[in-house]
Amino acid sequence: MKSMVRHISAVLVLGLMSSNAFAQDDRPGSINERMDKMEKRVGEIERSKAEEKGMVEELKGHVETLEQELTMVDYRTGRIKALQEKVEALSIGGDLTLIVQGISAEGVSKADGSYSADLFLIAPVGRYGNLFFRGDIGQGDGISPFMPPTFSGPNADLEFNQPSFELVEAWYWTEFDIPDIRDKRLEMTVGKMDPTALFDANTAANSEVSQFLADIFVNNLAIEFGGDANGYGAGFSTAYRFTSIYDKGLSVTGRVGLFEGDGDFKDMLDSPFIIAELDIWRPYYGLDGNYRVYAWTNQVKHTDLSDPSRDNLSNKGFGISVDQKVSNDATLFARYGMQDKDVSYFDRVFTVGGQVVGNAWGRGNDVAGLAYGASHVSSEFKDNSLSLEGYTADASYEHYLEAYYRFWANSNISVSPDVQVIVNPGGDSSKDTVFIYGARLAATF
Asked: Are the beta carbons of 378 and 345 closer than 8 angstroms?
């Protein structure tokens, strides 16, 4: 192509020389200059086309990832979607999760599995509202019976170890045309629900079905959420967005929730779990960032670890949850939380980690994640651990590591190898380091 350009250039230049023999640009040096300029321009065009092709391929990968995220309907995603937009018609979805894990610690090598399945339904009710129902069935204790005492469990997907279908969530969400119909800022949720669907959210670490498996990375371990043993209970939440929808660079929302403390549907407001949170969303150079700050109290009766006669205490604390995209493919996250050391085995928890989308290695739908967490042993538990749990908690922290890779076999089925490491389990430095290995298969529809 370059030789053809040179030939055409020469012909054009010779024609100009014959028509204007005395023109300054007809000097012999000008011919080469013109040809060099045209060759340079051709090179720029070719490079531009190559760059455009690369950008198209990169964009294609991002679109594939986005489409996969939008079609993934694990129950957390379904709940959040129901809270974010008004559905126009009846919507049904669900997921099935199969988990196999093995443990190696203290000379013990064991493996076991569990499964859970969720079915949810979203129905439009009222002018701006949705009804949400979710049923759950699950079976298996996994490797929990073989674990030494730890602050964080290795499988947050464990809920009901019984082959029966349970209605675990049933709530109504709506928004109000305040200040006007185009900029509705006030919303309300009421019913039986999971508070973690509304509070302490995180883009990179919030779903045991699709992200990290260990309890410490799914939610802030230093929040004692109310409800039953699985966190479900009657409650009410309201939120107000302080910024306008026309402000494309900032969103600030305040949210308050009041939930039943023990989940037994008796005297629901006598000992509630109360939480208030401020959510800030702000993009930096087009990369989304979410910053959440919250404070909470659980009024269910707690016992002082040092003085069993004081059995009417409450627990309380505060925390933060942050996730920030640092590129189109990478997101970092961090959480920090504190709770009352008088009634808690651990009083401070810190986690940090991130996830990477697989565009760099040609797998635009896959995701890899890595996280580290540390749970600080409370002084009250250290002093009384022998009488409370039968061992001496002499370490300052329980350290936790987890890594996973989520491979999409097709648009509905993913497989996630997962590795976890626990150092000083339960704050006991005499215990061997715990190694956990396993895999998760998730099917969604």
From this structure: yes
Q: Which helix (H) or strand (E) holds 367?
A: strand 363-377
pTM: 0.80
CA–CA separation, 329 and 65 (whole Å):
10
Tokens linked to 402: 């987890």
Listing DSSP states for 144-206 in one string gives: GGGPPS-SS-S-TT----EEEEEEEEEEEEEEEEEEETTEEEEEEEEEEE-GGGTSS--SSS-
Tell me the average confidence (pLDDT) per consecutive run of 10 residues in the chain, 445 residues long. 43 41 46 65 63 56 49 59 68 90 86 90 88 90 90 88 84 91 92 90 92 95 86 90 90 94 74 94 92 95 89 93 95 96 94 95 92 96 91 94 95 94 94 95 89
Q: Note whether 97 and 414 are within 8 A (CB).
A: no
181 burial type by CB count under 10 A (0-12 exposed, 13-18 middle, 19+ buried):
exposed
Nearest to 349 by CA among 300, 301, 384, 400: 400
Q: Could you give the domains of the chain?
A: 2-55 (no CATH), 72-444 (2.40.160.10)
| Contact of 400 with 422, CB cutoff 8 Å | yes
